[in-house]
Amino acid sequence: MTTDPHLLDDLEWRGLIAHATDRDALREALTADSVRFYVGFDPTAPSLHMGNLVQLLTARRLQQAGHTPYALVGGATGMIGDPRDSGERTLNSRDTVKEWVGRVRSQIEPFLDFDGPTGATMVDNYDWTASLSTIDFLRDIGKHFPVNRMLARDVVRSRLEAGISYTEFSYVLLQSMDFLNLHRDHGVTLQFGGSDQWGNLTGGVELIRRAEGGHAHAFATPLVTKADGTKYGKTEGGALWLDPQMLSPYAFHQFWLNVEDEKVGELLRIFTFLTREEIEELDAATAEQPFRRAAQKRLADEVTTLVHGAAETEQAKAAAAALFGGGELRELHPGTLAAALREAGTSRAPAGTPTVDLLVASGLVRSKGEARRTISEGGAYLNNERVTDVDHVPGPQDLLGGSWLVLRRGKKNLAGVEVG
């Protein structure tokens, strides 16, 4: 299969290479032939998240350029977890990790092509780690790791004073062993991951050199941060999960829709497959008419479609429009409506509660008097219909999806009420 000679240029233009072992050697390898590469995902949670999405899409770019992916799910390393600056991880049981391995595998599969000459292969490092004896591990792997080099890793240095367990300290040996095994058994010569994995990535390259006399490559993608330098990947409800049961497609779409103008061009490069020309046009649109948010809208649509599919993207857009009067609320899928309202803010009320009391309970007004004034002045809406009677009581016919009411004060202040 012919490889794309411009792959590395595209990755660099998109800002996807923060570090590389030897860029010239990497370029030569990527243009000379189809390279077998791997990227790993530890199941330390029941779902992948925004940071993992960077790696999934980068793997897809490499495969589309003619290279062969090995997607590693860490059934072994997931039982330990890579050390973090914030402190020791809570160790999960084998049964929990096994369940999460299955969930993570199912999330990876849609992003890669498993057929053809560059078809992807899914592997689990538990397969070659579980039966390995301690003596063999120390002789065959540990022998190649100088402790002074391990102590020099940034995350280890930052944890030395507070304390780091031998379990987490030795994680680099396990990930490096993964690269060595894939190199021996499958001819894998390239590994990539996030920049926080750089010590582990280079550890694998070095282990292949020391143990096999072989040559391998590695590169790291940058940490994606907000304009103020803090980490992305959090919504008000928690991490930016890829699992729709943990974060609704509506909330996922809203996250991308609300990124800062200063960052939207960078995120378009990293998280979409739009061409350079398309992205530069959106950059210009942001500079000239930022209030139109053309780049954010395209970003939200593209990423939501990649992760959740085109139908969920359209539902998310329809829900956002309908909540503010630009569409028919009753046409929304009940699950999408519920997810959208939970993002806006919800309360509960028994059937037969007057609209005045609902406005207070929802937090849209502070008192019944203010609620009555809002209705009298024409500023109160129920399911996008203006409420004109201060004594109005919603009935069963008003319930959306069987249990929801949408309240609005003015054009932008919105809340959901679950009745029952």
Automatic annotation (TrEMBL):
* A single Gene Ontology CC term: cytosol
Q: Which family does it belong to?
A: Belongs to the class-I aminoacyl-tRNA synthetase family. TyrS type 1 subfamily.
| GO molecular-function term, one example from the UniProt record | tyrosine-tRNA ligase activity
Q: Which reaction does it catalyse?
A: tRNA(Tyr) + L-tyrosine + ATP = L-tyrosyl-tRNA(Tyr) + AMP + diphosphate + H(+)
Instruction: Identify the residues that bind ATP.
Output: 234
Where, per UniProt, does this protein localize? Cytoplasm
UniProt EC number: 6.1.1.1
Q: Which HAMAP family match?
A: Tyr_tRNA_synth_type1
Motif mapping: 'KMSKS' region = 231-235
Name of this protein = Tyrosine--tRNA ligase
First-tier enzyme category under EC? ligase
Taxonomic lineage of this organism?
Bacteria, Bacillati, Actinomycetota, Actinomycetes, Propionibacteriales
- CDD domains linked: TyrRS_core
Which BP terms does GO give this entry?
Answer: tyrosyl-tRNA aminoacylation
Keyword flag Glycosyltransferase: no
Gene for this protein? Answer: tyrS
Keywords on this record?
Answer: Aminoacyl-tRNA synthetase, ATP-binding, Cytoplasm, Ligase, Nucleotide-binding, Protein biosynthesis, RNA-binding
